[in-house]
Design brief:
Helix content is about 35%, strand content about 20%. The chain is an alpha/beta fold. It has a single domain, classed as 3-Layer(aba) Sandwich (Rossmann fold). It is elongated, with a radius of gyration of 19 Å. The C terminus is likely disordered.
């Protein structure tokens, strides 16, 4: 993140530790300005789609809502718990599911397993969006059927590219970024 860590220590007096990070705009702020919004690509051909985002963090949900506001052909529905998300997936049959892994009632891995075991939801592509960037977790979720595994902070250009791939390609290949 182009930052620095530092320490000053004096025997018998104590230590001072510090972290310096560059100041940057939040992902939300970056895509609220008209200039940046104009740069966001739209889904090829204006494909109409419904996305279900299973996410308990209001800031993450707002970010995706703001990004998708520039894509009027995409309808976003959301659930803040895994069980609620499973119910919505079965009832609404969205074109795509965005899934956080750390939910208050069920781990995202369990939600994914239920989605893939249920005949009514197994064919719905799932994009995992999580702060867990470990290779083992990424591999496990991709192997269990996730179409893509994106890490937070969300790379908006990458996110939109994966959305486009899923929503315009009837048989997308798994994204292993």
């Amino acid at each position: 993140m182009a930052g620095t860590l530092g320490v000053e220590s004096e025997v018998g007096a104590g230590s001072t530790f510090w972290v310096d990070l560059a100041v940057t705009a939040s992902p939300e702020a970056r895509y609220e300005s008209p200039g940046e919004a104009a740069d966001l690509p739209t889904v090829a051909g204006g494909t109409r789609a419904t996305l279900l985002y299973i996410e308990d963090n209001p800031s993450n949900l707002r970010l995706v809502e703001r990004i998708l506001a520039h894509r009027p052909s995409v309808t976003l529905i959301s659930a803040v718990q895994g069980g609620e998300g499973l119910d919505l997936a079965r009832r609404e049959r969205p074109d795509l599911i965005l899934l956080d892994l750390h939910l208050p009632d069920l781990p995202g891995e369990q939600v994914m397993r239920h989605l893939k075991e249920d005949a009514s939801t197994r064919e719905i592509p799932v994009i995992v969006i999580t702060a867990d960037a470990t290779a083992g977790q990424r591999g496990k979720l991709l192997d269990s059927g996730a179409h893509a595994y994106l890490t937070k902070p969300l790379d908006v250009t990458q996110f939109l590219g994966v959305l486009d791939e899923v929503l315009t390609d009837p048989e997308p290949t798994p994204e292993r970024n």
